[in-house]
Design goal:
- It is a single chain.
- Helix 2 runs antiparallel to helix 3.
- This protein has one domain.
- The chain is built from four helices and no strands.
- The protein is mainly alpha-helical.
- This is Transposase, YhgA-like.
């Protein structure tokens, strides 16, 4: 019922008011989309950083225990530069 009243109110707007309203709605949708995209990208970057940090921690422990570099590289997927 509320949605029907909202649609009726929009239909009763002048053309200029309706165009302004539609522009406002489109701006809000765009802002929401940008916020969602930024959130998703930030989360993915954070997860990737956490995974690398975890691999580096494992490599550090393996290195302290005297594991060969080749084994550390194989198990962690890191490069020799990332381990050093």
């Amino acid at each position: 019922m509320k949605k029907a009243k909202e649609i009726l109110d929009i239909m009763n707007l002048s053309e200029e008011e309706r165009l302004g309203y539609e522009s406002h709605v489109e701006d809000r949708r765009y802002q929401a989309s940008m916020y969602q995209s930024t959130f998703v990208v930030g989360r993915m970057e954070g997860e990737a950083k956490g995974q690398v940090e975890g691999k580096i921690a494992v490599a550090r422990i393996m290195k302290e225990r005297g594991e060969p570099l080749e084994k550390i590289l194989e198990y962690t997927g890191l490069t020799p530069e990332e381990i050093e």
